[in-house]
Amino acid sequence: MTLTQLEYIVAIDTHRHFATAAEHCHVTQPTLSMQIQKLEDELGVLLFDRSKQPVVPTETGQLIVAQAREVLQTSRRIPEMARESRDEVGGELRLGIIPTLAPYLLPHFISAFMKRHPSVTVHLQEMLTDQITERLRNGLLDVGIVVTPLRESTMTELPLFREPFTVYAAEGHPLLEKTLISPPDLAAEGLWLLSEGHCFREQVLNLCGASRIREAPLQYETGSLETLIKLIDRQGGFTLLPELATLDLEPVRQARIRRFAGEQPARDISLVMHRSFLKRSLINALRREILAHLPQAAFRQTPG
């Protein structure tokens, strides 16, 4: 049994297709298939049910693949420990970030991070929280930037900051007559929401109270806060925006922002990793850079 063979069976389990797994492992499909067959012969068990499409692991195969992931994670930790002992920050960093953060947070820190650590190659992927956690479990991402807590025992969370919510309303909307907003005010007519699957949508629903929500007459499925802002400008209504999404709005739109009275509704933003995560020095360097480039007047760091 070799680490390479374990990498092959993990790749097949991840991609559920021999050709795609071979491409991911940078080998030909016959080479990959031969090594899988060799491992199955050595173990005396069938790891994958090849009669099904997509390919699925057998019951025994599921247990062996899970153990293979643990073994590979441990083996990858060895060169990582050597790099840390030399105080080196380098290599590849695969980062997932949710859509309601990506366009507003990344510009604050990513250029400075790349400049400070030129030997790091960063692969950025924008996706929903469920997709990020799934890819972290499968080893396809190193770290994610999401809203927490996730309440997943397999994940480690490193708090970054707490981001307040604001209200954005169309010109002439009754909410703009108020200097400060309280949660009961959100029962007003014309609320615009992000599409299903976005955690920010669920946070807005929780804050507004689902039973009191009076959505806009036009129902539009979008994952873009920028699209919501433009629709409100033309169609009327209001929505909630995280603070970062308001910082670069032009003055005419800034005038349509209202903040909450008292304790500010907010969301906690964290770095999340699988509990057996690697690249600790690299992830810690990323966290330092994010915190160093936040607009400190608008955000406060959450407790560790």
TrEMBL record:
InterPro entries cross-referenced by the UniProt entry: LysR_HTH_N, LysR_subst-bd, WH-like_DNA-bd_sf, WH_DNA-bd_sf
Family, as annotated: Belongs to the LysR transcriptional regulatory family.
Keyword S-adenosyl-L-methionine: no
Pfam families: HTH_1, LysR_substrate
The entry's keywords: Activator, DNA-binding, Transcription, Transcription regulation
GO CC terms, sorted: protein-DNA complex
Protein name: Hydrogen peroxide-inducible genes activator
Domain HTH lysR-type: 1-58
A molecular function GO annotation: DNA-binding transcription factor activity
UniProt key word DNA-binding: yes
